[in-house]
Amino acid sequence: MNAAHRPETMASGKPRLSLWQILNMNIGFFGIQFSFGLQQSNMSPIYKYLGADEASLPLLWLAGPLTGLLVQPLIGAMSDRTVSRWGRRTPYFLIGALLCSLGLLLMPLSPTLWFAAGLLWILDAANNVTMEPYRAYVSDRLDESQHAQGFLSQSAFTGLAQTLAYLSPSIMVWCGMDANARNASGIPQVTVLAFMVGAALSFTTVAWSVRRVPELPMSEAEKAALRARPRGLAATLDEIWTALKEMPQTMRQLWWMKLLQWYAMMCYWIYIVPALAQTLFGTSDASAQGFRDAGLVNGQIGGFYNFVAFLAAFAMLPFTRRFGAQRVHAVCLSLAGIGLLALPELHSKALLFIPMLGLGLAWASIMGNPYVLLAGSIPPERAGVYMGIFNMFIVIPMLIQMLTLPLIYGPWLQGRPENVIRLAGVLLLGAALAVLRVRSVRPPTRPGKT
């Protein structure tokens, strides 16, 4: 290769990637997030179709945060230590994506409530096996000067994937499928087909990214150093404990924003369909036409806010570079908070798209800017374990929400799902204030590291 065609090498020793290469390496994130989008938009309706009551819905969503709490830091630490012919992170991408595809195929065929709840545990565990090594892969592959571009590209694919995931049932109805056709479990056939599409995308997109932009090869010295490190569960747990004790200051400060932000988002995802059924159609009966229509409306406004997120992720990049990830994130969270406070007051489907503008901006920021703040503050050799721990900052707030919301749903929120949406708006405004208190501090250079 002559000098004119040799990739530019950054000060870190990593090649500078083109925008096209960065997009290719993140296409796998499209498949992962399509799966998450299907869960966000369909699990509460599926549970209701199978006989769940509204107050118990948060408990039935426990699979996601609990599997994340257990799986993400373990897989992150393990991938930091992995030496294989395919790389450090790639084996986890592929195994997790394959298991996710199988879970998506089976979910809409669930015959009972307990079957669907149990299958969600498997599906979320598989998604988490793929997710954290993927975050670390971006940190590994890109120079720090390209971190914002890498993580905001992931955010863009999150928006695009979830747009299509939310809209899939409506698109099928627009193409002529019967919205009222249901399988033996009472689950709409359009939902069944959407999950099949998700199963196909989950594995194929990850395989595309791995083939197009493989991991950087490790030197023999790096491989020898990894092989020399202690192995086994005890060593992995010790690494996680040590990383927790040595957690960078910036990461500690981000906790408070993450607590409020993710508590709010879980409130929205779990209760938006019951809230729309009440405010638009005046029903809480899962067998009623109005409830199924609320599910379709949620798919449409959810698709819209995710499409806004897709566009905003790219448009946000110059603002993040100029004003900083911290300020941009605070503004986006504030707009979403105001929108969710207004949403229960709107009784026209057309007006619902206005608050979704703010939620779309926030979702783009949530999936990118906190990772920009984090990536510059953690030591590169611990990217996997710290990305896993950082996602504990997502799942612990989710767990807190799922365990506490049923306790306050009746006495504090009058048993009304639209009040849960209002609570989410207040919490997002609190998260905007919390992120402004974060101070970014670069990690100290370790001996032997450059």
TrEMBL record:
SUPFAM superfamilies: MFS general substrate transporter. Its main location: membrane. Keywords: Membrane, Transmembrane, Transmembrane helix, Transport. It is found in: Membrane. It is a multi-pass membrane protein. The chain crosses the membrane at residues 20-39, 59-78, 90-107, 186-210, 260-281, 301-320, 327-344, 350-373, 385-408, 420-438. The keyword Membrane applies. It comes from the Bacteria. PANTHER family: SOLUTE CARRIER FAMILY 45 MEMBER 3 ISOFORM X1, SUGAR TRANSPORTER. This is MFS transporter. It comes from Roseateles flavus.
